[in-house]
Automatic annotation (TrEMBL):
Gene3D superfamilies: Kelch-type beta propeller. InterPro entries: Kelch-typ_b-propeller (IPR015915), Kelch_repeat-containing (IPR053256). The lineage of its organism: Eukaryota, Viridiplantae, Streptophyta, Embryophyta, Tracheophyta. It comes from the Eukaryota. Transmembrane segments: none annotated. PANTHER family: OS04G0487100 PROTEIN, PTHR46773. This is Kelch repeat-containing At3g27220.
Length: 346
């Protein structure tokens, strides 16, 4: 079993559901690792992303009803390619800040909104300063953006801003400062359910551009993955909730809401204690909102990070991201574009 037994991947609790997966032959073989998505009606909208030295500058649409990809169109040239903050109200997709270009290039503060009915883009007021992968959500008529990494890509940011929006338009000219998030950093799930805003998992620190590299080649720094869970209450104060079963990051769009539960798929966890290499997650985690308890409800065909997740007609879907090297090696290897699904009943 070598250096990577990672037996937690094979652990199944008494409440774990044994899932049977189906791999669809219709997929985008080039769907990038750092793609971002929103689920609107029966469609999954996948935006941008990059695979190492190649960026994707377009939108792809997956139709759950006939299991096909289609409808590709371009994004604005000034828009970030990865590490986006993104959320939808069911028609409009708000895209905030992010990294412009592949590898570990710099961020942009540009913000846009997409009308999914007309497929037209519109500018929004830029974020006060650029951020990488901030937690982003719509809550009580305002677009909230918080945390992420600062301009050097590594330093955790605590700032929290919001701006009033309606029907794809900003109702204010400037972003308003809100209460800072207790712990900064990128790659966390940000969920609004039952009129509460939750921020789940994430990490402090990330890869940085190698000094002097003409292609901004990524150089690893120390990152700390955490299991923290926070909720913003009616008094606009952060409340600490029970932690995740294990630290988990790279889950910004790897979550869905199913029957009063937040379901989170894959991600990255603590690095290997000996090799210090990144370790991927292969479990499906559930946070029961009424009891505020976590559980493991199943496992994936393989470990995967930065995946895109949807739930449609009783089926849990995931696509894109970066998978592991094999059953006994949880380090990242291949960028995938295939679509998997399984029946999930909670």
């Amino acid at each position: 079993m070598g250096l990577y037994p990672d037996m937690s991947y094979y652990y199944l609790s008494q409440q774990t559901i044994i899932l049977q997966y189906y791999l669809y032959p219709l997929f985008l073989s080039s769907l990038p690792m750092s793609t971002y998505y929103e689920l609107i009606n029966s469609n999954l909208w996948a935006l941008n992303g990059f695979v190492f030295l190649k960026v994707h500058s377009h939108v792809d649409i997956y139709n759950f009803m006939d299991n096909t990809w289609g409808g590709r169109f371009d994004m604005p040239k000034e828009m970030a390619h990865s590490h986006l903050g993104m959320v939808t109200d069911g028609r409009y997709i708000y895209v905030v800040t992010g990294q412009y270009g592949p590898q570990c290039r710099g961020p942009t503060a540009h913000t846009f909104v997409l009308d999914t009915e007309t497929k037209q883009w519109r500018d929004m007021p830029p974020l006060p300063v650029p951020r990488y992968a901030p937690a982003t959500q719509l809550w009580r008529g305002r677009l909230h953006v918080m945390g992420g990494s600062k301009e050097n890509r590594h330093t955790p940011a605590l700032e929290h801003w919001s701006i009033a929006v309606k029907d794809g338009k900003a109702l204010e000219k400037e972003w308003q400062t809100e209460i800072p998030i207790p712990r900064g950093g990128p790659h966390r799930a940000c969920v609004v359910v039952n009129d509460r805003l939750y921020v789940i998992g994430g990490q402090e620190g990330d890869f940085m551009a190698k000094p002097g590299s003409p292609i901004f080649k990524c150089s690893r720094r120390n990152e700390v993955v955490y299991d923290d869970v926070y909720m913003l209450d009616d008094d606009m104060k952060w409340k600490v909730l029970p932690p995740m079963p294990k630290p988990d990051s790279h889950i910004e769009f790897a979550w869905v809401i199913v029957n009063n539960s937040i379901v989170i798929v894959g991600g990255t966890t603590d690095k290997h204690p000996v090799t210090k290499k990144m370790t991927l997650v292969g479990e499906i985690l559930k946070f029961q909102l009424d009891t505020q308890k976590w559980s493991v409800v199943g496992k994936l065909p393989y470990r995967v990070k930065t995946t895109l997740v949807g739930f449609w007609n009783g089926m849990l879907y995931f696509t894109s991201g970066q998978r592991d090297k094999g059953p006994y090696d949880p380090t990242p290897r291949k960028v995938i574009g295939e679509m998997w699904r399984t029946k999930l009943s909670l």
